[in-house]
Design goal:
The complex is a heterodimer of chains A (321) and B (376). By secondary structure, chain A is an all-alpha fold. Helices cover 69% and strands 1% of the residues of chain A. Chain A folds into 2 domains: 22-55, no CATH class; 94-315, MetI-like (MetI-like fold). In chain A, strands 1-2 form a two-stranded antiparallel sheet. In chain A, helix 3 (86-93) crosses helix 14 (285-310). Chain A is extended, with a radius of gyration of 28 Å. Chain B has 9 helices and 21 strands. In chain B, the strands form 4 sheets. Chain B has a 6-stranded mixed sheet with strand order 6-7-8-3-9-10, with helices on both faces. In chain B, strands 13-12-11-15-21-14 form a 6-stranded mixed sheet. Chain B has a 5-stranded antiparallel sheet with strand order 16-20-17-18-19, with no helix packed on it. In chain B, strand 9 and strand 10 form a beta hairpin. Classes of the chains: A mainly alpha (321), B alpha+beta (376). The A-B interface holds A 212, 214-215, 217-225, 228, 232-233, 236-237, 239 and B 67-69, 88-90, 92, 94-96, 98-100, 102-106, 115-116, 119-120, 163-164, 167.
Chain lengths: 321, 376
């Protein structure tokens, strides 16, 4: 037993460990800087940086809304002085933009469907396996792609799916002529699913962990086979996770840029690609801003509809009655 | 009551029907000691069996093997005469109430109870009526539309019981469902289990570490320790005639004395011979251990006051503990090499009669001091 020195003994030269003294000093400083009577405002103080960031975003949106109301005067290449809705009119009347919007929404929907289809069993096995080696392998496989950026991954897919790529070589071995796997709609969706899978798994895993194993055991003792137990117990109980993952995957896909740009080869543009073109190719800031706001509205409406349908409670936000 | 009498009458018949039979069942998780070690028992139809044991005794593992959640590494289990070892849980006719209930939170009480009927392909037109009937049985009539989180702990217990019984399984298993309840509710639910079991006559196996529950609810008790069945008997026999020191210590409050066997079957501690009874003969001089229950010891100020007892000894009070309806004294007996005895004193007028350090006398009857071979 180490001797605990008495603090009121003047003979002892005992000093508290450095880490304790640093913590004490920090505590003292904090007390001076943020006295106890301020504690009701602590929550607000902590949320301030986040509010500032969102505020800047909102400010940018207003800026964009303003520039979307001016058309580009092509004679002087400057925005018009007068406010006009011409940009929105141009977007609404253009069949090309209609196609782009429909394509984005459709691709996002497909991506959500396939990603959840693949992510659910992955997350389920990861959560339920009793072998820690399997869980670790699944986790490492899941996180590995995170270290590689989206562009690099899309480039990797270009190599794999190219006319002389690995996929076509493999097909050639069984006597199938090379087929064009790239620069079409399925290639973009494939790339998006591949990109979104880790996000979906990471969002589903906690939802599945929250389902007690005993609930499934109970279902089996009550006469449910594995499939019935999955359908009647696991799926409904995982619904909040599925909706949360679906929203994240859906909004990220809807606004994606790199996959359609690289795997679509210019023929499969999403809204983000169209916006990029307006800002950086044709320099029509107004039209670009109008498209951007349209995308914001579209995404917000979809998220709003989903929340209205399933309730914020299913997303773990607030309690439902 | 009529059901109870009928069950007793059945039991006296020569050809008693066996509902569950376990023969030499073992479970090896590969961690050294066997979780369940060569367990064999029989349970007659309609009886209430409790498997009692401390945590880690293998009682839950045994139950899970009967339910089919785990496959034993040796031995055979039959339910109603059929070997079930190859059948997955959902193909066994076994209802189970789980420790954490495992109700389905996304369903109402009625939907929870209807679930096994739907899974087992009951006639859809009969399901609603049957669900109501079983909700009534557990006294939850009218609560069918409540969601699980809108029910109290006791009501959730009742839903879990109804759900496990609604498909009229051959066997009902209870995996310590009362462990988390407070004492009052637990005692109420124990009587409920007893009532429902009598009403339906369903063969039941209950697992618990609560000795009181085992004695209160069961027709038959199995005591387990270290993966082995220590004793199987009805509650009274189990309490009165424990088979070994473990059972004597696990049920009720016993005090132990170590010594050696004498030629005439008594216990010798130092130079003193203490009279007791043994279920079997011991070699003279063999090490033995004796146990006596706290309520079987008489306590008085002098040995003369205990003339009615077979055996009296003088000692000194080491500790007194007030327990409400009784007072417990811990008494050290110098003549028995300082062995201590725990004694219940039930006379409310004389609570606090003796204090720590007071000389007292203990007395007991020969048949109450049980002599065993020492625990392995």
């Amino acid at each position: 037993m180490p001797q605990i020195p008495s603090t009121d003994d003047p003979q002892t030269t005992f000093r508290y460990p450095l880490r304790w003294r640093i913590m004490d000093a920090l505590n003292y400083g904090l007390d001076r800087f943020w006295p106890a009577r301020m504690s009701p405002y602590t929550g607000w103080a902590l949320i301030m940086p986040a509010l500032l960031l969102v505020g800047i975003l909102v400010l940018g949106l207003f800026e964009m809304a303003d520039s979307s109301l001016h058309t580009l005067d092509r004679a002087i290449f400057r925005p018009s002085e007068a406010y006009t809705l011409e940009n929105y009119q141009a977007v609404m009347e253009s069949a090309t933009y209609g196609r782009v919007v429909m394509r984005s929404v459709f691709a996002a929907g497909l991506t959500v469907f396939f990603t959840l289809l693949l992510a659910l069993p992955y997350a389920y096995i990861m959560v339920r396996t009793t072998r820690s080696a399997v869980r670790k392998a699944l986790l490492v496989t899941l996180f590995l792609p995170f270290f590689i950026g989206q562009v690099v991954r899309a480039y990797g897919l270009l190599i794999i799916l190219g006319t002389n790529g690995v996929a076509n070589n493999a097909l050639g071995l069984v006597g199938i002529e090379p087929i064009r796997l790239l620069f079409n709609f399925p290639a973009v969706v494939f790339g998006l699913v591949q990109y979104m899978l880790p996000f979906a798994v990471l969002m589903l895993a906690p939802a599945l962990t929250a389902i007690p194993r005993e609930t499934e055991t109970a279902a089996s003792s009550l006469g449910a086979n594995w499939l019935q137990s999955f359908r009647h117990i696991v799926l409904p109980m995982a619904k909040p996770g599925l909706i949360g993952a679906g929203l994240v995957v859906g909004t990220l896909s809807l606004t994606d840029f790199a996959m359609p740009a690289m795997l679509g080869g210019g023929s499969q543009d999403f809204i983000a690609n169209a916006i990029y073109d307006q800002f950086f190719r044709t320099a029509d800031q107004g039209l670009g801003a109008a498209l951007a706001l349209l995308l914001v509205v579209l995404g917000s409406v979809i998220v709003g509809v989903v929340i209205a349908l399933f309730g914020a409670g299913t997303l773990g936000m607030g309690s439902k009655k | 009551m009529t059901v109870q009498i009928a069950a007793k009458a059945d039991a006296t018949q020569a050809a008693r029907e066996v509902a569950v039979r376990a023969s030499h069942v073992s479970m090896d998780f590969g961690s050294g000691a066997l979780a369940v070690d060569d367990a064999s028992f029989e349970l007659e139809k309609g009886r209430f069996l409790t498997i009692l044991g401390p945590s880690g005794s293998g009682k839950t593992t045994l139950l899970r093997m009967i339910a089919g959640f785990q496959k034993q590494t040796a031995g055979e289990i039959t339910i109603n005469g059929k070997a079930v070892d190859a059948a997955p849980p959902h193909r066994r006719s076994v209802g189970m109430v789980f420790q954490k209930l495992a109700l389905f939170p996304h369903m109402t009480a009625a939907e929870n109870v209807a679930f096994p009927l739907k899974m087992r392909r009951f006639n859809p037109r009969q399901i609603a009526g049957r669900v109501d009937q079983f909700l009534d049985l557990v006294k939850l009539g009218g609560y069918g539309d409540r969601r699980i989180n809108e029910l109290s702990g006791g009501q959730q217990q009742r839903v879990a019981i109804a759900r496990a019984l609604v498909f009229e399984p051959d066997l009902l298993l209870l995996d310590e469902p009362l462990a988390a309840l407070d004492v009052k509710l637990r005692e109420e639910m124990q009587l409920e289990f007893r009532r429902i079991q009598h009403e339906l006559g369903v063969t039941t196996i209950n697992v618990t570490h609560d000795q009181r529950e085992a004695l209160v609810v069961s027709d038959n008790v199995i005591v387990m320790d270290g993966g082995r069945i220590q004793q199987q008997a009805d509650p009274v026999a189990l309490y009165r005639a424990p088979a070994n020191p473990f059972v004597a210590g696990f049920l009720g409050l016993s005090s132990f004395v170590e010594g050696t066997a004498t030629a005439d079957g008594n216990l010798k501690v130092g130079d003193l011979v203490v009279q007791g009874t043994a279920a079997r003969r011991f070699e003279t001089g063999a090490p033995v251990v004796a146990a006596i229950r706290a309520e079987q010891i008489r306590l008085a100020g002098t040995r003369e006051a205990l003339a009615a007892c077979d055996m009296t000894l003088e000692g000194r009070v080491c500790d007194t503990i007030f327990e409400g309806e009784r007072q417990m004294y811990v008494v050290e007996i110098g003549a028995l090499c300082g062995a201590t005895f725990r004694v219940y004193h039930h006379d409310p007028d004389s609570f606090g009669l003796f204090r720590v350090g007071d000389p007292v006398a203990l007395g007991w009857n020969r048949r109450d001091l049980k002599i065993f071979s020492p625990a392995a």
